[in-house]
Amino acid sequence: MRALGYAARWQYGEYKYKTGGNMQPKRVDYLSYEPEGNGILWIKFNRPDRLNALYGLAEQDSTMAKVGEYMRAGDADPNIRVIVLTGVGKAFCAGADMKSRSTEQLSDPGVDGTRQHFSEHFTPLFRDISMIRKPTIAMVNGAAVGAGLDMALHCDIRLGCENTRFFTYQNVGQIPENGALYLLPRIVGMGRALELFFTGGFLEAEEAYRWGLLNHLYASEELESKTRELCDRIINSPPLVQWISKRIMRTAMDTSLEATMQLTANASGILDRSEDSREARKAFLEKRAPTYKGR
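Below the sequence we write its predicted structure tokens.
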């Protein structure tokens, strides 16, 4: 099963959220699943009294597990075109709930047990966010701390406001986990990523925007409306082109120019024969808006 591609893993039932045509996941109150008829799916961290700190660790009903489940459900739903991850209240996500964890009586699993726990539980959850076909946006409405920062990094696009703050793991004696050490240097550059990790791991909104960590920076009262405007532009673009471009770009992060150009040559031949491609050309000649079906 591990060797199968993402689409094949859906087909063979590794992800069990598509049953009987119903693509709605099991809901929990600490993470909202809000699909809209316009094609936008809002996934919202919903523990505002705890600054949207994560519920649980990596178990089945933890916040991180549910983020992956919700995103996979949205990815499988043909009515969803773009997925927005954000927080309720004044924070995006405060990361692990350190207050509740400090009161837990946990046995020490040892170094190898900890490594295995991350490898088998956390790593697949974050990898799933990056593997989503459809465009994903992190609307970072406030503090993104630790795993909250990691989840924002795994999204395709990040939008923020003057309240946006990014914090890494230094203050709890850890290195950035869950792909942050891979993604952040590729987004902001090696020097800036190392500067962040060497100096305490705190980044304000303006600097995050200058570094390229945020695609756009808006006033807080405009953040949602501007996010919706971006979603509308995404929805009006052909979905197959988006999905294939995203996959090739992410693959290109670890391959050569020649290999990437071969991938694009193969993809162009497939797209040229798609229904959406024919519709785009026809709409252009007829001077009308195209209607895309994702096939």
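The first strand starts at residue 31 and ends at 35.
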